[in-house]
UniProtKB/TrEMBL annotation:
It comes from Chryseobacterium oranimense. The keyword Zinc does not apply. Residues 2-125 form the VOC domain. Keywords: Metal-binding. This is Glyoxylase I family protein.
Length: 125
């Protein structure tokens, strides 16, 4: 029917929480600390659409993302104006790749990454 959510395990919960809420602007639905797992679970939404579960776990192993490796390649977010979004993120201190044009759709897009180097794409609606 549709994707319900995407789960992300982060290496530094406070840094990733700030990134996804203050830098990207996702809304917090609920935040739970699970004492038995020493783990936070943060449910995040774009508007009122639940999209990401952000987890913390003690000492998670790193996952390679570059060069291209198996597994999740990147997360893509739809935006109305790619140039405006890129400028906004650069002003907030993110390193963003230059804007490219999708050769098949003609739409603009660019990449940046989250604090754990998970590639994030911003794609023109």
């Amino acid at each position: 029917m549709k994707i319900h959510h995407i789960a992300i395990i982060c290496s530094d919960y406070d840094v990733s929480k700030k990134f996804y809420t203050e830098i990207l602007g996702l809304n917090i639905i609920r935040e739970v600390y699970r004492k038995e797992r020493q783990s936070y679970k943060l449910d995040l939404a774009i508007g009122d659409h639940y999209v990401i579960e952000l987890f913390s776990f003690p000492d998670p192993p790193p996952r390679p993302s570059r060069p291209e490796s198996c597994g999740l390649r990147h997360l893509a977010f739809s935006v109305e104006n790619v140039q405006d979004k890129r400028e906004e993120l650069v002003k907030k201190g993110l390193v963003c790749e230059e804007i490219r044009i999708d050769e098949y759709t003609g739409k603009e897009f660019f990449f940046t990454q989250d604090p754990d180097q998970l590639p994030l794409e911003f794609y023109e609606m």
